[in-house]
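Re: the multi-chain job from yesterday

Posting the exact lines I submitted so nobody has to dig through the queue logs.
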Amino acid sequence: MAKLTDLTIAEAGVGLAAGDFTARELTDAYLLEMEASRGLNAYFEETPERAREMAEASDARRGRGEASGPLDGIPLAIKDLFCTEGVLSTSSSRILEGFRPTYESTVTQQLWDAGAVLLGKTSMDEFAMGSANITSCYGPVINPWKASGGDAAGKDMVPGGSSGGSAAAVAARIAAGATGTDTGGSIRQPGAFCGVVGLKPTYGRCSRWGIIAFASSLDQAGPITRTVRDAAIMLGGMAGYDPKDSTSVDLPVPDFTTALTGDIRGLRVGVPAEYRMDGTPAEIEALWQQGVDWLCEAGAEIVNISLPHTKYALPAYYIVAPAEASSNLARYDGMRYGLRVEGEDLTDTYERTREAGFGAEVKRRIMIGTYVLSAGYYDAYYLKAQRVRTRISEDFKSAFENCDVILTPTTPSTAFALGEKQDDPIAMYLNDIFTVPASMAGLPAISVPAGLSADGLPLGLHLIGPAFGEEAVLRAADMIERAAGFDARP
Amino acid sequence: MTDATETFPDAIPGHLAGHITSRIGHNSDDLIEGETGTWEIIVGMEVHAQVSSESKLFSGTPAAFGAEPNTQVSLIDAAMPGMLPVLNAAAIRQAVRTGLGLNAQINLRSVFDRKNYFYPDLPQGYQISQFSDPIVGEGRVTVDLEDGESFEVGIVRIHLEQDAGKSVHDRRPDATCIDLNRSGVALMEIVSKPDIRSATEAAAYLAKLRSILRYLGTCDGNMQEGSLRADVNVSVRKPGGELGTRCEIKNVNSIRFVRQAVDYEARRQIGILEDGGEIDQETRLFDPDRGETRSMRSKEEAHDYRYFPDPDLLPVVLEQSFVDEIAASLPELPDRKAARFADEFGLSAYDAGLLVADRETADFYEQVVDAGGAKRDPKIAANWMTGDFFRRLNADDLVIAASPVSAGQLGGMLDLIADGTISGKIAKDVFDAMWESGTDASDIVEEKGLKQISDTGEISAIVDQIIADNPEQSEQYRSGNTKVAGWFTGQVMKATQGKANPQMVNQLLQEKLGS
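And the result, structure tokens for all chains:
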């Protein structure tokens, strides 16, 4: 029998239903692997006791004939950004040192209600700000993949971010699946860097209640998994209307796995001219073309489209997101929870607490955000950026009149070595150049592992769909996955 | 008269700038005489009214006053990580209702904005408010003064916002404690145009506003509990001159204090200007113990609130039918009711105004006048209510709902006067006895034998006796000193313990003395 931790969520579900193994055995297998892989620093908090309890409860349910569904008994890693009751939820920031919520986020509660098992909380870029998982207060997460050649050969690589811990855990098979959040690419980009599937649903698909807020109009929870089918299964458990989140959309949650028909004949795949950018490595361009060919061969129709405002998406994002963050992070003031560094008076306490509690990138973005909202600059920056955002949305709306999904590369590079791109924040921000437009438009998008670079590092392809068009996105992604036959392991 | 086109100096926040004051001309009594000439006071007010509602504005927590500290605080109110606001629809209804009651334009589309600043009583580090798109636009309030004059105050806008928690300074010697019960309670901020011209007007405006809100049921107007607070903006100028720099007196929590604060502040500013100084634009607090305003040390670090639309909330979009439905459900408001009282009951505008200030009082009055069966003289009823009845309520510090004398009982007493059972003078004693004991008038009259003596024979006999016993005074009367009739009346009343029917006494005296 295959190693239990090599089973996908779908395969594990079949095995559990068939009685080939118990949920407890599955969880124990993962707990062992987690111990062995601590060097990756993917988990900052493991919850073995709770995991075993939950696994046993799953077995008991199954014994009574009351198994909940495809997620029952499945061990998952949860990104630190999700508030999990009684378990450290710190946004990987010193300022939430020791914070154990008395409440559970809606998304994770739904997963537990579906019978899933909590293996532990994964490290992330502090307050979800980053694309390399190097700003976590718990130290960098290491990508299980290593370059086989080139300058970075043998060095520790970044897993991408901000959901680097979750992506690394899935890639290293120390979780069957993981939750992440995506604001500008924080699920998809680490997915690509780690050779796993990362799905960002439509804004409003999953509830944000209980997820520590970074940029309210952009944040979305989503699954990180080994296969597209697994992502469809997890999304089914995570999505749903929540009246406690006013931006949550009241639409029924379909069984997303039914979208994986394997038939994309007549599917119109848009290829946007503006995503062809100077400086993109040739092998990424080549993979993109390869993706086009695969879909074409499977019967899709390729359509050249234009998304004229693409190049403004990243600069606009780096105005809107920090602006919202500067306000969302104001509550971390040392008064009610988390870190407090006493000062001589109120102002001094605020300053010392936030100085000590926030890392450099977070401070940078709070300052940018405060600046772009300030009197005299609001119109020129924030308001302007929101208008650009509307243009970007309109670009996509027009495009989707002529196509059903859009295909692009996920990232402008493979994973890079720890220590690179750290001198220039802009170089780091450019990691998200292909993923950000879909975030700004609130559209569903997925990264699927599609090949390896010359240096043996994973490369992903990126599919964007119309609002609430997760099914088309999953169907196309499934075809890429089949065609790519990506079975390399780190 | 031409429209005023005065605008405020740049000192005013953006959303108030450019607002035109509609008052030109003024009662010259409002001007203050200084050493260098006469001065005009310009006052505008931002009134914060807590919305009467079960829950807070964005969380389901109870909004009631008086609970133990930090017992009415939800995860949202405490701004725990990951929490999100959800709009309480009832607050929208109350805001629309208030707007309609103030003759204001309802904005079918409005937006919640974040007002960002740091303070421990503001857990989120921002207040959810409405900046550029408030729910209610321009309106107006007519205010009556005691002298019968009235004036109009324009309303610039009304918006909804969260209240902050409370800082408690006297619980610990070494620290300030924070009570978050009030954090997140729904407030309506009612912004007036700078149309007020005196301390008296300011007090009258606030009283009228409070009265309307209580009629509407959208705010209980309880200023001691903080349900209603006023930020009062005061500036002075020479009549016809440029507007002066204004100072804002924050959180004035009684109508009396508003009057005192405006008066003090205007004189303070005049004093400075007459000495050749300049007014610093600043925020001040009114100290009721000293009757003075003093400068507040700035409690808010940032004056730039960096307003932006709250991305956790959707814009509020209302259907016209929703607004119309609320409009149809409004009660008869004070102005309309006062006009009706004046019309139907022949009351003076002033008396009508007194009776309608409170909906409970107006209802009480109407019950006295017309309780289904009995109908009483409305003017007499009004006199009794605005006279003895209000006096006793004030003296005993009672609200009308706690009156020991019910509308029915008061009406019953009026019946006894009307049918001659007791005189108006005796009725005052009966009223006091009713108040003390809560017993009906007729029972008191019985018990104390206060029935008016209206028997002609009885009074005649007494009159004859008095005339006979006092030949000197009788002679005085007959020789032309008619004033001595009053003395005679007094004697008759004394002899009858005040119970003789006065009209009858006078009539008989005239007959008998005259002959």
